[in-house]
Amino acid sequence: MLDILFKRNPSTEQLIKQMGSSDNAAALRAAAALKERLCLQDGSMHGVDLRKANLREARLARASLREVILDEAILAYAYFGASNLQGAHLQQADLQGANLREAQFTYADLSQADLRGAHLAEADLRQANLVQADLREANLWRAKLQGADLYGANLKDANLYLTEFDSHTRLPDGSYWSPDRDLSGFTG
Description:
The chain is mainly alpha-helical and about 190 residues long.
């Protein structure tokens, strides 16, 4: 069916629907077509429901995906460098090994997301929900975590060098960050 859509010059709405497919090849073709039309940057994707989409290894740099719903989506090894995911829903999403450098995640819900080995250097995670997120071996160098909720998150072997916290950042044990707090107990 996807091949038929591409032969007929599908509408943006058809491509967005296809991007939410569980078929990785179909979802990636739709994402590429949307990128070519600049729909990933013009706000067309704001609030779109891509729940359970298979976008493994997608290239979505500088995409504007505000409030997009990617709950339970497969985003492993995807590239979201400098993308805007403010207020996005990524509950239980598979972001293992994803490159999220400089991405905007303010007020995003990443609860129970798999972020093992994810590259989050300089990402903006202020006010993000990271409850029970798996951040083992994640690179959070210079990430902004002010007001983020890390309750129950796994930070084993995570790089927290120059990561920014504030007194509203809730740590994995339920306590709140303070300047004298030693975080090595969480990173192991």
